[in-house]
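[Automated response] Your request has been received and processed.

Submitted sequence:
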Amino acid sequence: MISNNIPVVKLGIIAVSRDCFPIKLSTQRRENIVKAYKGEIYDCQTTVENELDMLKAVEDVKNQGCNALVVFLGNFGPETPETEIAQKFDGPVMFVAAAEGDGDMINGRGDAFCGMLNCSYNLGMRHLKGYIPSYPVGTAEDIARMIEDFVPVARTIIGLKGLKIITFGPRPQDFFACNAPIKGLYELGVEIEENSELDLLVAYRQHKDDERIPAVCEDMKKEMGEGRYYKELLPRMAQFELTLLDWAEEHKGSRQYVAFADKCWPAFPKEFGFEPCYVNSRLATRGIPVACEVDIYGALSEYIGMCASGDTVTLLDINNSTPKYIYDEDIVKKYGDKYRLTDTFMGFHCGNTPSCKMCSNRAIKFQLIQNRLLENGCTPDFTRGTLEGDIAASEITFYRLQCDSEGTLRSYIAQGEVLDVPTRSFGGIGIFAIPEMGRFYRHVLIEKHYPHHGAVAFAHVGKTLYEVFRYLGIKDVQYNRPKNLPYPTENPFE
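Generated structure:
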């Protein structure tokens, strides 16, 4: 499902050893980890005791194509060379340490529990980033599990270093909620290319009668199924899909990965002859996020979630409250007292959600709101092209990385689910349930001035996202707090 638009993590492991401890503690314990880990990992045979060993080991893993590293303290470890590994290696590095328990507590005690403290201290002094798990000391089996958790974090960090966000068009008038300084992108190492809507229109017209259009139309028919699309609209949408894909390839430049943030109204449908939503959903399905309404940080957030989950994502408006009659008639009957009414809301967009994450009622339809605005509510023509239907029930993580008006990066993460309840509404829409959403909505989303767009990963990946944001240096990472943990702005007398 996901294309080559996210990195493949190639891990290496380097053991380090303090020269006053037996080196076999590190070498043997490293071998035990390699055996315990179920994935692929390059086992570097140079155990680092000094700086020359460090240079040799780093050169070795680079030559093997490794783009992420595990630095393993099999004993106390040498503080300088072990932290210089992170300095010399161009990629995310995890630091972990061996637990005792090999049997011999005289000559077999490694003191890595102690060494991990000095390792962390030295990383701080050198202003180096390292991924350190919540409890970084363990047996071979424990560390193998830590490596599994590290992989999606590493994939996301590598992806951001190779990402270019391509935009088309300024934001629609009176719709500036997702505007944000691009300074934060450069701090993350993300590149951006901003274009006008006219650039996109010119490129689109150049793809008229492209010989690939019929094949794309057939693929669209196969994806949607008979009776769920407008036949005469398919060539226009296929032409647009090819335009975006070609633009991505031609404009990547030095970068490997791409995300889009495109203007989609009010001028787009009339000039292009359709709404771009379904095409956006198709690109998201193959791992190329296309954020609506030129939401640059929405596109960035989607890409992060795609790397973290290894699956497709979407971007939705945190749109409307759930009507009490739906709550009483459907939610309570199906979920009992698991959720209060204020724990639920409806997430909506015109149709950018991948079809594979929607219910069987999905179909290409028209944008009702824009039809009212642009076609006076008459028989829809160019306002057709949305992908509508209820979003399928699933575990989800609702999240966003945002640069605020002061240029500070901040984020939120909330785990929940899409309920298996009909929305009885229009658009690509679902009823979401997040514990304590009402308080989260007021004291995080409103209080901290977040825009109405939130990214959605179709799995519980809060743990990974939290570690990613910490690694990136995001100091303000908010989440939906349980009832017994008040927000700083929450009225204690309410």
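Summary generated for your ticket: The two ends are 48 Å apart (CA to CA). The first helix runs from residue 23 to 36.
If you did not submit this request, please reply to this message.
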